[in-house]
Amino acid sequence: MTAIETLARPAQRIAWQLAQVRGIAAETYRVKSLMLRVANWRGHLPGQHVDIRLTAADGYQAQRSYSIASPPEDEPLALTVERVDGGEVSPYLVDDLRAGDHFELRGPIGGYFVWTVATRGPLWVIAGGSGITPLMAMLRHRARRKLRAPALLLYSSRSLDDVIYREELGAMVRADPDLRVVHTLTREQPEGWVGHRGRIDKALLAEAGFPPGQNPCIYVCGATPFVEDVSRFLVELGHDPLTVKTERFGPSGG
Amino acid sequence: MSGSVQDLVLDGNAAAGLLQEIFVPEITNAEIECEVCGSTARVGALHLYAAEMGVVLRCTCCDGILMRAVHTVHGRWLEMKGTRCLRF
């Protein structure tokens, strides 16, 4: 039994613990990845998240959930955070946090929005903006395990500069003939852009995606309206709602 | 962001941290049966309405309230009046 299968049935209390920032990587002009050391980390599954809790000097606490971006195989633990302007937590995480700093974290949390190489069928992940994060953990896990089953990332970003993990995704595709990455840029396209433009619609899902007959495992992550639209289109195209797992990023105040 | 009520809907998965303070087995993969319409779903797939103090989880078929959970300074509250059963 591998670590992945063992982790599939956790029954352990999740407790707050301290995470230490080991490094920070800029992903885009408004997104950073935090590399963390968590002393008693018991491993995680791709797609799971953590809760982060910040406490002000006067005792006021703010709590947010962030998806884990790193695969179970990798250390340190990586979270990818987008700055929500005017937010309570994300501007601190993105702009103020420095290597060596600590904050409180608990996890891993959630067993529903999870994919591992033990899951059968093609993997189809659909991301809107920073919704790529938990899906990247799945794609990285798939790459580490060298799984030869078809996979597709359909990724909607505002502009090319907003594409998170752009170079890593390009390298993944070059190294893996079974992986396809399809970008669409909704607001601004560079000169000579030959990729898709505009939001993900039914036509793009039908053209780029796996047909329902191939029984893909589908994971959709992004802002609530994005997830609502995409999941509705998928069901209209004939995909079984039970095969479409969704994770909505709400306006939680960042 | 249009700011409509629909934008506030999340997935049951997002309540995992709060519910996991109460349940020992992993909760988002548990099957939950609606008392009103009898449909079954994974807790992680329910519709979630979240606020700072707690969450309301609703059936995706009939919109019935299945769970309400709040965490206050006076303790944790979990109401499951609309739930027939949970299976882990």
Report on this structure:
The complex is a heterodimer of chains A (254) and B (88). With 254 residues, chain A is of the alpha/beta class. Chain A has two domains: 3-109, Elongation Factor Tu (Ef-tu), domain 3 (Beta Barrel), CATH 2.40.30.10; 123-248, Rossmann fold. Helix content of chain A is 22%, strand content 33%. Chain A has helices spanning 3-7, 90-96, 132-144, 166-175, 202-208, 224-236; strands at residues 17-28, 31-38, 49-55, 61-67, 77-82, 102-109, 123-128, 151-157, 179-185, 196-197, 217-223, 244-249. In chain A, the strands form two sheets. In chain A, strands 4-3-6-1-2-5 form a six-stranded antiparallel sheet. The longest helix of chain A is centred in the middle third of the chain and has 13 residues, at 132-144. The mean pLDDT of chain A is 93. Chain B is mostly beta strands and 88 residues long. Chain B has one domain. In chain B, 5% of the residues lie in helices and 42% in strands. Chain B has one helix and eight strands. Chain B has one helix at residues 16-19, and strands at 9-11, 31-34, 40-42, 47-50, 54-58, 65-72, 75-79, 83-87. A five-stranded antiparallel sheet of chain B has the order 1-4-5-6-7, with no helix packed on it. In chain B, strands 3-2-8 form a three-stranded antiparallel sheet, with no helix packed on it. The mean pLDDT of chain B is 89.
H/E element order of chain B: EHEEEEEEE
Order of helices and strands of chain A: HEEEEEHEEHEHEEHEHE
Helix content of chain B: under 10%
* Spatial extent as radius of gyration of chain A: 18 Å
Indicate the multimeric state.
Answer: heterodimer
Largest sheet of chain B: 5 strands, antiparallel
Keywords:
heterodimer, A: 254 residues, alpha/beta, Elongation Factor Tu (Ef-tu), domain 3, Rossmann fold, 2 domains, six-stranded antiparallel β-sheet, 12 strands, 33% strand, globular, B: 88 residues, mainly beta, five-stranded antiparallel β-sheet, 8 strands, 5% helix
